[in-house]
Task: structure prediction
Amino acid sequence: MKYYISQTIVEMVDGRLIGREVVLTRADSRVKDSDGTRYKNVKLFMHKMRAIGIENLHINKYEKKRYNRLIREQNKRHKVKQLTMADLAKMTEQADKELSDNHVGGE
Result:
């Protein structure tokens, strides 16, 4: 049986609680070290992660459907958004405003 470690993140966004689960270790067939996904080894690794300060960790049994769903959601969140000219204009306007405010307040 294979296992993997995930982390639960709960945030307050616009007055609402938002929760998500993030996969931290790989547990599928692409793992080169098949012993690395056994419960004993995953548990030891989880204790190491907790020791360095990572909280809300869980050990999950590898179920292909659930694991792949979590990975797909994670990939959507990490997708790179292209920068547009409107974004650049907004950023330069904001930078100019901050620089002028700092210059006036600095004198």
User: Anything to note?
Assistant: The chain has three helices and three strands.
